Amino acid sequence: xxxxxxxxxxxxxxxxxxxxxxxxxxxxxxxxxxxxxxxxxxxxxxxxxxxxxxxxxxxxxxxxxxxxxxxxxxxxxxxxxxxxxxxxxxxxxxxxxxxxxxxxxxxxxxxxxxxxxxxxxxxxxxxxxxxxxxxxxxxxxxxxxxxxxxxxxxxxxxxxxxxxxxxxxxxxxxxxxxxxxxxxxxxxxxxxxxxxxxxxxxxxxxxxxxxxxxxxxxx
Amino acid sequence: xxxxxxxxxxxxxxxxxxxxxxxxxxxxxxxxxxxxxxxxxxxxxxxxxxxxxxxxxxxxxxxxxxxxxxxxxxxxxxxxxxxxxxxxxxxxxxxxxxxxxxxxxxxxxxxxxxxxxxxxxxxxxxxxxxxxxxxxxxxxxxxxxxxxxxxxxxxxxxxxxxxxxxxxxxxxxxxxxxxxxxxxxxxxxxxxxxxxxxxxxxxxxxxxxxxxxxxxxxxxx
Lengths: 219, 221
Fold this sequence. Notes:
The complex is a heterodimer of chains A (219) and B (221).
Chain A: E1 2-6, H1 13-23, E2 31-35, H2 38-41, H3 45-52, E3 67-70, H4 85-90, E4 93-96, H5 101-111, H6 113-116, E5 123-127, H7 129-132, E6 161-163, H8 176-184, E7 190-193, E8 197-202, E9 205-210, E10 214-217
Parallel strand pairs in A: 1-5, 2-3, 2-4, 4-5, 6-7
Antiparallel strand pairs in A: 1-8, 7-10, 8-9
Chain B: E1 2-6, H1 13-23, E2 31-35, H2 37-41, H3 46-55, E3 70-73, H4 87-92, E4 96-99, H5 104-114, H6 116-119, E5 126-130, H7 132-135, E6 163-165, H8 178-188, E7 192-195, E8 199-204, E9 207-212, E10 216-219
């Protein structure tokens, strides 16, 4: 699976160009499934409606995809695997929305999507928690939903953590200095990225695409 | 709880007027919670149809996009993994609960599991069902409408004492004829309405009446 881990979606031309490269074809010829599940963990019930109606300020679904569907992870354990696994395998992109990363990780494991991820050939486009869910851990600062084991562990598909939305005007605590303190608690490498930055992972090779500001902390 | 059980949503002015009477306010002043859950359980629905309904691309069966003041999404399958005190304030904040179509047995299963089924009698909100979102309130749906294998078989919630056969004579559903509905009603045994997409059944304090600009039949009365 190829990863495009964003803070706020496909925010600028550089990130959009990178998405097209990863897809290997224009967005207009690509199919996508949107995963809203992380929103529930933050009790953001109105946000999902706004996003799917195309009214979110964050660009991810409104890029002109050939087709779109909803992949609701919490519904999957009560469905037959052949009712959803083929749809996941056939889609060109999974668009994984923000919210609570630990809640999302819990349901990605519970439904079987987590174990499917390494064998998928498509592109995972993460937004905020939809990116953080693939990291080894998110750090205590980003914990809201309490998982059964209380841990901040996410799926560990990549070896680094992510601090999103650095210097966002609406999030005064998301400063680079705060990210540095956060990174020191993790014990693994970590990127702090602003909303104009994304991290790509292709065959294990990590790259950063940015029209903004980012830092890598060694951990 | 007041119910407006439609086949295809707020399809015509008579059905919309019935809703406004039930809520006591215009649609533009009405806060809605939309329940997409049934969509995921039906082989003809799934991810693509869920997108169409939530995004407003689906115009044949209007429900989520008719000009509500606000719309939140109540995903029943997510509730068991959220704190127990999540559901009650959420449904109390809504004037209407919009139950989308799909698989009625799957929806019934998750209404029981999430605790919503148990809360229904205490709610002031109006339940607006569409197809499976209406069927879920009936005692049983009949074997013709069983797709998802429920531990409860074709038994749904039984909030009302009649069954419903929706989409009669729908051009895209050649099996949904009034003759098929009559055979289905014979299996059901109890009272059963067959309704087309221009018809809705209203239930207030146990009193049932039909709102229609189309065709409907009551069997086993």
